[in-house]
Q: What sequence folds into this?
């Protein structure tokens, strides 16, 4: 048996999958949950050592024979988080995550110093929105002046795991494009943003050069081998942001494909062989990890919404589908605006979740819970519309992320978007993508192409969903109501 290991550092859990590339199947997998520290000022943090502990925990449940079969390892991770290291490689502070909105004032401060939002988009391809790394670095400077002086290296979450596994500090172009300080057109750090963060210091000295090739960055150190049971010397590929690895793991490596991820965040993204810059700033102009670009819309409240409602309504995950199946498409008029953690798109960092349309007849668990899944999906339908506005097309949607396991939610995606939905047999897109990247790095000289990978993308016919015309017409009307409701509450939360 020969496998590659894909590791995905998500927000709610870390997953490991061992992919037997000869049999084309996952032979072992495990996940371990992660805590998240949040407060009512928008803070969302994790400790970097929680990640390594969870990784060790997940790997401890994999048989040693499977671990010995690994010929390459790839790491995927939640984007944007800021891991500040001192010169000894020690982490200086808790990691502010992609969903931390506490540095919204710093987003504004950076863009004002750069000459405004449009200038920022002109220089980097993106505006600095809540969650991107740039504002977290300035927030760190403001609030932890002493530790900021000791800042030696800026890493992103998956870079930190790479560092822990191999001792190498590096960055990958796709994940680097989510910092806010990369010019996505030239693929170089943008001096104007870095100076807006700190005019007195050359922050490029804290940044590893972003790498564009899917190369091997190092190998499992003796230290990491002792902690994890992985064979010392196993090659580790560069990895990438979870959406970039999700693109690779859902076959989204050529134009014309669309992926939706139903995870803690909701994302919708496409592949493009040229930079797609949105002057309205709804679609992020990220780089892909496969040499192109990855226009993406991210919402901060996808399964966040269903988890909160599920917990309030006391519905177990195994009863989730049965419960929401009791409500019809459109949830009998209940509409949830899912902004429980504030929101990035629409740009409403201080917004709150709102449940609208309740009356004496429709106030029940099934309508409210289903409206949560529908609201989170309306937010992603907006992403599809925005991609179309920028000239991209959608032939099919490949779904990934934890909630892909919900058959009812899969159908909701097809019905709201009006597009057929497919799921790969290897449905853990980000973990699978990093396992495939490791495979390409070890056996295909880093080249990622359909010719080498095509045979690994196997659709699961049982997960396929065709859009329903009847449900689609209910949703078309409800979507317009959703958009009007977002507009109405924007006035309250702006
Ligand atoms: N059967 C299911 N039905 C609905 N939602 C599910 C189901 N299984 C998992 N989920 C959701 O998926 C979430 C985890 O998604 P995942 O993509 O792993 O998140 P992340 O990568 O952000 O940590 C869970 O918290 C849960 O809300
Ligand atoms: O911020 C973004 C994308 O811009 C998020 O998609 C994060 O990358 C977190 O992903 P999940 O934990 O939901 O997988």
A:
């Amino acid at each position: 048996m020969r496998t590659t290991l894909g590791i995905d550092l998500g927000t709610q859990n870390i997953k490991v999958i061992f992919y037997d590339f000869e049999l084309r199947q996952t032979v072992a997998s495990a996940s371990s949950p992660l805590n998240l520290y949040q407060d009512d000022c928008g803070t969302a943090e994790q400790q970097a050592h929680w990640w390594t502990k969870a990784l060790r925990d997940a790997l401890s449940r994999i048989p040693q024979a499977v671990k010995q079969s690994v010929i390459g390892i790839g790491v995927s991770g939640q984007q944007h988080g800021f891991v500040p290291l001192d010169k000894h490689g020690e982490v200086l502070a808790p990691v502010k995550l992609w969903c931390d909105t506490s540095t919204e004032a710093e987003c504004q401060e950076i863009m004002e110093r750069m000459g405004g939002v449009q200038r920022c988009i002109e220089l980097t391809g993106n505006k600095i929105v809540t969650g991107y790394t740039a504002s977290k670095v300035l927030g760190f400077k403001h609030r932890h002046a002493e530790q900021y002086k000791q800042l030696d290296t800026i890493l992103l979450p998956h870079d930190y795991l790479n560092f822990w596994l191999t001792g190498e500090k590096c960055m990958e172009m796709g994940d680097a494009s989510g910092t806010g300080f990369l010019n996505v057109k030239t693929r170089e750090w943008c001096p104007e943003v870095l100076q807006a963060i700190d005019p007195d210091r050359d922050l490029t000295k804290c940044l590893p050069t972003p790498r564009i090739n899917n190369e091997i960055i190092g190998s499992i150190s003796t230290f990491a081998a002792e902690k994890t049971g992985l064979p010392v010397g196993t090659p580790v590929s560069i990895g990438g942001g979870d959406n970039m690895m999700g693109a690779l793991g859902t076959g989204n490596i050529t134009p014309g494909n669309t992926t939706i991820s139903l995870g803690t965040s909701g994302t919708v993204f496409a592949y493009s062989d040229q930079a797609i810059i949105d002057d309205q700033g709804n679609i992020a102009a990220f780089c892909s990890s496969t040499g192109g670009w990855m226009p993406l819309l991210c919402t901060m409240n996808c399964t966040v919404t269903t988890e909160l409602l599920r917990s309030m309504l006391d519905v177990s995950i195994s009863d989730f589908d049965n419960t929401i199946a009791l409500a019809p498409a459109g949830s009998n008029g209940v509409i949830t605006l899912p902004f429980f953690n504030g929101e990035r798109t629409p740009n409403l960092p201080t917004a709150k979740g709102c449940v609208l349309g309740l009356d004496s007849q429709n106030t029940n668990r099934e309508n409210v819970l289903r409206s949560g899944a529908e609201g989170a999906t309306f937010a992603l339908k907006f992403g599809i519309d925005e991609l179309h506005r920028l000239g991209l097309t959608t032939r099919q949607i490949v779904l990934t992320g934890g909630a892909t396991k919900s058959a009812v939610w899969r159908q909701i995606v097809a019905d709201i978007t009006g597009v057929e939905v497919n799921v790969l047999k290897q449905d853990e897109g980000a973990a699978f993508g990093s396992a495939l990247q490791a495979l390409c790095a070890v056996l295909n000289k880093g080249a990622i192409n359909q010719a080498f990978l095509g045979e690994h993308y196997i659709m699961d016919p049982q997960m396929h969903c065709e859009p329903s015309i009847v449900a689609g017409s209910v949703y078309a009307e409800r979507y317009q109501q959703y958009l009007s409701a977002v507009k109405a509450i924007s006035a309250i939360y702006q």
Observations:
- The longest strand covers residues 25-33.
